[in-house]
């Protein structure tokens, strides 16, 4: 045993801990879900590590999770014999928060009122730190598999923690919570009750594929497994409750909010697999960050193989969470092999189609749900219009856009087309920074006057997909700010002659800045406007390229 060092939590970590200590989250039971979830991840990692590194000196017998209760000492311990942590791991993983979006989250929290904090915690999820909702001190003892040195970490969550080396510690991690004094008015606090703890495990962690064991009642030294360990995707569809699906979702996604939609798939035959997928109800904070997690988990015959399996989900659907369990892959399969694998590509195509059709159904059967989906993920989904020409029509089908038809309700293209006026050939749109800017644009005047609906596109990605636009339902997309827009009432030859001199003079005067000055029918009240050539970049796109230094 070495010397005890006292270290400080990173400042973001400190702020989150304060939130936990003053426990603003109403459902405190979930601390146990988080600890069991971490223990399960640690066992998964150990199994993978032993596949990859045949020389690893690790114990792999009797891998399990154990929960020990001591009513007298008022402690609860969750122990696993998984991968464990080195001293550096403990400092980096437990003493700091590397989760992307943390700074963002804390800023929002500061801006929000006290009561909104609760909701934000639910969105963010705090994992291990949830322990401090119920404990006034936490002790963690761990040893990384294959190494000799153990570590003891302890903290009351108040700014600092202590850390010391141990010469002797079992492989894996044990986390002991010194529970806060029982609150008489609130029996929820009694986390030393075997009955209560068993119930929480059943509720939140039943599907964990490792045994979660507790002392057998009335039998000295005996242990019993509390969870069924049954993979949800291997059970009959109607045998699994929504709540079970939701808890499973939380385990794999590290999200604290219920998913919006659950999707199950099964394929039999030459290449057998099962998939259990979820559409989250909120976009993760890193959805548009470069290092964002993407893809689903891959299992082979019930064995966890990898997280974020990008080969199984196209990038524009990176927010989809879930599990794919394939029967006929090798346990040693690598990311590189997966990218090349023909069958994996086939699975990916089917998953993609299934997600698109699920959203389509949602659109017709539950408009409110669809609206939530679209406002959270629409921006990402539209990337598919550029990345995935093969499914473009289907993606357009499930997309919706702001339009001049309605002040705050987006429209589907189907609905737009059904409202098209006699003689209207194109689907008109205008891109810009905001709805207000677009609505005040002189480009809209003539369209408004004719009663033509115009899509209002304000996402940066809209600049990209409208470019190679092939169209929708046989109608092409046409920017109202570009080229000659034929609104059917050509300016007469007479008028052209009348203004010829003025136009010549203007063209000459403005020759450095514009290509041509011409008479237009697109304006009703504004005297003039600037129009791009059909092949030109739009102003927003020009700005984007300039910002990227091109
Ligand atoms: P998350 O699980 O979302 O990563 P947590 O706060 O729950 O966040 O845990 C932080 C990290 O600490 C984990 O990613 C893991 O690397 C490490 N960790 C936590 N518990 C254990 C454990 N029982 N065994 C090994 N590592 C663990
Ligand atoms: Mg966790």
Automatic annotation (TrEMBL):
<keyword id="KW-0143">Chaperone</keyword>
<feature type="binding site">
    <location>
        <begin position="123"/>
        <end position="128"/>
    </location>
    <ligand>
        <name>ATP</name>
    </ligand>
</feature>
<feature type="region of interest" description="A; substrate-binding">
    <location>
        <begin position="1"/>
        <end position="335"/>
    </location>
</feature>
<dbReference type="InterPro" id="IPR037196">
    <property type="entry name" value="HSP90_C"/>
</dbReference>
<feature type="binding site">
    <location>
        <position position="99"/>
    </location>
    <ligand>
        <name>ATP</name>
    </ligand>
</feature>
<dbReference type="GO" id="GO:0051082">
    <property type="term" value="F:unfolded protein binding"/>
</dbReference>
<protein>
    <recommendedName>
        <fullName>Chaperone protein HtpG</fullName>
    </recommendedName>
</protein>
<dbReference type="GO" id="GO:0005524">
    <property type="term" value="F:ATP binding"/>
</dbReference>
<feature type="binding site">
    <location>
        <position position="173"/>
    </location>
    <ligand>
        <name>ATP</name>
    </ligand>
</feature>
<dbReference type="InterPro" id="IPR020575">
    <property type="entry name" value="Hsp90_N"/>
</dbReference>
<dbReference type="InterPro" id="IPR020568">
    <property type="entry name" value="Ribosomal_Su5_D2-typ_SF"/>
</dbReference>
<dbReference type="InterPro" id="IPR001404">
    <property type="entry name" value="Hsp90_fam"/>
</dbReference>
<keyword id="KW-0547">Nucleotide-binding</keyword>
<comment type="function">
    <text>Molecular chaperone. Has ATPase activity.</text>
</comment>
<feature type="binding site">
    <location>
        <position position="38"/>
    </location>
    <ligand>
        <name>ATP</name>
    </ligand>
</feature>
<dbReference type="Pfam" id="PF00183">
    <property type="entry name" value="HSP90"/>
</dbReference>
<feature type="binding site">
    <location>
        <position position="335"/>
    </location>
    <ligand>
        <name>ATP</name>
    </ligand>
</feature>
<feature type="domain" description="Histidine kinase/HSP90-like ATPase">
    <location>
        <begin position="27"/>
        <end position="183"/>
    </location>
</feature>
<dbReference type="GO" id="GO:0005737">
    <property type="term" value="C:cytoplasm"/>
</dbReference>
<dbReference type="InterPro" id="IPR019805">
    <property type="entry name" value="Heat_shock_protein_90_CS"/>
</dbReference>
<dbReference type="InterPro" id="IPR003594">
    <property type="entry name" value="HATPase_dom"/>
</dbReference>
<comment type="similarity">
    <text>Belongs to the heat shock protein 90 family.</text>
</comment>
<feature type="binding site">
    <location>
        <begin position="100"/>
        <end position="101"/>
    </location>
    <ligand>
        <name>ATP</name>
    </ligand>
</feature>
<dbReference type="InterPro" id="IPR036890">
    <property type="entry name" value="HATPase_C_sf"/>
</dbReference>
<dbReference type="GO" id="GO:0140662">
    <property type="term" value="F:ATP-dependent protein folding chaperone"/>
</dbReference>
<comment type="subunit">
    <text>Homodimer.</text>
</comment>
<feature type="binding site">
    <location>
        <position position="80"/>
    </location>
    <ligand>
        <name>ATP</name>
    </ligand>
</feature>
<feature type="binding site">
    <location>
        <position position="34"/>
    </location>
    <ligand>
        <name>ATP</name>
    </ligand>
</feature>
<keyword id="KW-0067">ATP-binding</keyword>
<feature type="binding site">
    <location>
        <position position="85"/>
    </location>
    <ligand>
        <name>ATP</name>
    </ligand>
</feature>
<keyword id="KW-0346">Stress response</keyword>
<keyword id="KW-0963">Cytoplasm</keyword>
<dbReference type="GO" id="GO:0016887">
    <property type="term" value="F:ATP hydrolysis activity"/>
</dbReference>
<dbReference type="Pfam" id="PF13589">
    <property type="entry name" value="HATPase_c_3"/>
</dbReference>
